[in-house]
Design goal:
It contains 2 helices and 6 strands; from the N terminus they run βαββββαβ. The chain has one domain: Alpha-Beta Plaits (2-Layer Sandwich), CATH 3.30.70. β3 (54-59) and β4 form a beta hairpin. Strands 2-5-1-6 form a 4-stranded antiparallel β-sheet, covered by helices on one side. The radius of gyration is 16 Å and the shape is flat. It is 24% helix and 35% strand. It is α+β, with helices and mostly antiparallel strands and 123 residues long.
């Protein structure tokens, strides 16, 4: 079964020291190597900062956009790993090894609905 490991970072984006940010990059590099070598990785991406977001809403039948994040929050979506594992427990195990958890962030583990027949699944 496929799961999304949604990485939620805490605090102000980019607020760590250069040394802390380099250490996190190194830790994520190792994590990515490990999850790739295991054969469970389907896809992964790091997201740009919330300030680069555009939120779209439908108001009176018209698309209305807002630049920046939808709301001010303490946590923000930093990226994801999409994995294919046998059980939720396996997905939780991979989530628990996420380097960002050391800094107070969280990882949401969410099952992915299978794509309907004829619709390609994307990583």
């Amino acid at each position: 079964m496929e799961y999304m490991l949604l990485i939620n970072a805490e605090g102000e984006p980019g607020s760590g020291t250069p040394e802390e940010m380099e250490a996190m990059e190194t830790a994520f590099g190792k994590y990515t190597e490990d999850i790739t070598a295991s054969g469970v990785l389907v896809g992964a991406d790091r997201l740009q900062l919330p300030t680069a977001a555009t939120t779209v809403r439908l108001r009176d039948g018209q698309a209305v956009t807002t630049d920046g994040p939808f709301a001010e929050t303490k946590e923000w979506l930093a990226g994801y790993y999409k994995i294919d594992v046998a059980t939720l427990d396996d997905a939780i195990e991979w989530a628990s090894r996420m380097p960002s958890l050391q800094g107070g962030g969280s990882v949401e583990v969410r099952p992915v609905f299978p794509a309907p027949a004829g619709v390609p699944s994307t990583p």
